[in-house]
Amino acid sequence: MGTNSKSSHQAYVTEPAGAADGEAGAPPEPPPSYQNALYLALGQGEGEGYIDPEQDPVGWYEAFAAAATQAMADAQWLDAQYGTDYVPMVKALTVQVLGDLSPEQLREIAAADGFEHPALVGMKNSAVHPLVHWLDPAYPAGIASKNKIQAVAQTRYDELAAGGTVGGMTLADLQAIEGAAKPAPPTASGAAQVGAAADVFTALGAIHEAVAAYEKVKGYHGAHSQASPEAGKAQALLALINAENTLVDAAAADLAASIPGIDGVLASAKKSVDTAIQGTHTTSFNHQPHLVPKAGEFLGVLAEHPDSTPATALLNWDSQVALLRKSTPADKREQLLVSAENRAELAVNLAASRAALTGTYDPQGHSFDLPQDPAQLPAALDALGAAATAHYDNAAKAAYSITAAAGVHPDAVEKLAPGALKPAGDANTLTKDFRTYAKGLSVPTLRETATAAGLEHAEVATRAQLQNYLAAGWDKSLSRKEISAEVNAKHLAKNPGAAPAASPSKAPAGAAPTPVKSAAPVKGAAAPVKAGAAPAAGFGAQRKNLVAALAHAGAAHAALPERLPAAEVKSLTFGPGKSANIGGHHVMTLHQGSDGGTWLIKPDDTPGQWRVSADAGGSAGYAAGGLAAIPVYARAVEGKLSSVQPLIKGTSPFPDQPSSWSQADVDHLVRCQVGAWMIGDHDSKPGNLLRTAGGGLIPCDYGASFKHYGQDKFAVDYQPMEVQTAFQTMIKAHKGGKLAAGVSVNPLVAHSVIKKYEQMPDAQWRSILHEAAHRGAAGDAPWAATMRKRAAKSLGVHPSQVTAAHTAEAFLDYAVERKAGLRATFAAFFTSAGFHAGSHLKTLGS
């Protein structure tokens, strides 16, 4: 919004041409880009391509906005490097020049740049026209203040469309201003036109009757759940939907389209139906099994509508209603259809994976149908592990989308995918039952089976180790690598001088193998780094480890695409989505983008839609410290605000066993923790790290960023997400001697990232987090209550008097405080944890 529709420019913090040409110690002159912007603005000085705004306001704005955006980027760089004050100078220029334009010129430019109904803002004759700010290229597109201006115009348009007036203006007046007045009625017979109008107003009357009938039975939020006749209520709701659809169909007729004010009639009817539906009281059956049949009456009637399908019945009731209404915007209906199809696919997969699991394991009888022949047992256990892993992963996803918790009635799931929701236990129960089953097997049989599954020196393993090694095929709390190490140590103790066993090459059943891949050659590196490379030892160790670290970082950055300008992200179009099936608790789909790439899209399902801004802000926050981070963008896809990010191909999961981590991995975790603390990310478990094809590491899934901002602490046992981060695992492994031989934690490697954040101007850090702050404050993000209290204390008022804007500013103030104390925080942590080098971080800072 503003400088983002036809203009492809975007602010980049890069060194401006000639920035270092000044005398040593003297501040540099304003960048050439500013001189060019000045010329395009006023026609003064040196420059090229001046366009007279009186003759071509749209063409002038495109040229000026591009130059001003580049000038802003150059000014930010100079201010950060030399302490100059050029950013305010650029902002003063943009405000002055745009403020000199007439309202008519501003409206023409804004309309060309994508603003809808620009004539509906600036009606109060304020000192500065709102479109001046919306068009101002010195401020990013999509910020809350610009979005609010468009929202005001949309609200006023909705009022006009519903038959109202705004500042004395009617819908017809607006259409005349916009040059979109309705064409004259076609030269059809008067009788035909009267007939078309009669159809419309007959349908309108039917809607009013249906609304009145529905109001009598729809219930209210304070009603007792047993008092509402659910089936009758649903039938009345369907009658209301059908009446509205009849009006939409009548209004779509050729002759009806010529009826003056038909848009207002449709808008008014939709508003009355919206109001009636929004007040609906429905039975809540989540965690209330005795109410499931009652809720089923309501949902069952909705599913009987001719346009319903087994897949659409997997949506909650209000989504089903929105899909049945023809007045629902087409993009939203398409998005709902995609959600329904994704849920249907998950239900079918869940039923299939349960059938595969229960073909071998009976979760109700706690028994197994496994071959007795030890030669056949390993393959059967592998198949069991794969089926169990697939089913438990599907069940975890289903818990958030096709259960009562998501407003889905179990009968709808059963109809589409029989048996999908029937309980099949969990990994822990399966392991417990397997141990009971394994007690009936002889130790020699277990040893033969474990050997076939990849365990070396099984002859010295205990029964418990053998059972656990086999159960690790589906139980993620067990590790075949650790069990192998224990058995190998026992073997070496009994056989001094024997060669140690190789690490097991057989991956746990159901998990994708993680091959060790060499990194692409990195300039300056003596040799490629490997994902699990052992640390260098002996002569030249420091040099080799440095080369490995450089290659490690280079491999991570090489796997990532460049961050796109906002205009390019907005211009992207996406093909149909398909389920991503990559784990996690949120709905994610993969789409082919118009740029030829594959994109991962995650709709924001939070009530206040704050997660997208946290996801994008967390990604940008990581990258601000020079760390490799997947670019995440916030934009609407299929009518729903979503996180949009490129799919990084060729990655594999980062292993969760510290004994397999290289020195470069451990150094990366130290550096990455600096970024994680800056954005308050306490969900950075090993599973949220990706190994690139070249051996580097990239953090992913930034949706939990800032969640506990202002009340969290930096401690090895602080786990607000109920997960142990990779950094915490690493610290404990170092102190417990469980890192690989020669690998250790070096606090000093954090210095380079800390320094990067320290050198960043506070204004730049605030700018990076601006959208996360304001979207989170408006959407009541988890941190909002904490920041509201901080703002109240600062302002000396009660928290109830604190606005969302105040809350957002308190968030940004705290983020700046966090940056200022970054070095001290890490020095204190490492020192208290017993790392003597931790105190040296302060020395490096001075």
Could you name the key traits of this structure?
3-stranded antiparallel beta sheet, 4% strand, mainly alpha, 49% helix, 5-stranded antiparallel beta sheet, 846 residues
Describe the structure.
It is a single chain. This protein is mostly helical and 846 residues long. Helix content is 49%, strand content 4%. A five-stranded antiparallel beta sheet has the order 3-4-5-7-6, sandwiched between helices. A three-stranded antiparallel beta sheet has the order 8-9-10. A two-stranded antiparallel sheet has the order 1-2. Helix 2 (57-82) packs antiparallel against helix 3 (87-99), helix 22 (611-624) runs antiparallel to helix 26 (762-778) and helix 23 (663-678) runs parallel beside helix 25 (751-759). It is flat.
Outline the fold blueprint.
Elements: H1 32-42, H2 57-82, H3 87-99, H4 103-112, H5 130-135, H6 144-161, H7 171-177, H8 190-217, H9 230-251, H10 262-278, H11 292-302, H12 317-324, H13 330-358, E1 361-362, E2 367-368, H14 377-398, H15 410-416, H16 427-438, H17 443-452, H18 463-471, H19 480-494, H20 541-558, H21 566-571, E3 578-579, E4 589-592, E5 598-603, H22 611-624, E6 633-637, E7 640-646, E8 652-653, H23 663-678, E9 689-691, E10 697-699, H24 726-735, H25 751-759, H26 762-778, H27 784-795, H28 804-820, H29 822-832, H30 840-845
Helix pairs in contact: 1-2, 1-3, 2-3, 8-9, 8-10, 9-10, 9-11, 12-13, 13-14, 17-18, 18-19, 20-23, 22-23, 22-26, 23-25, 26-28, 27-28
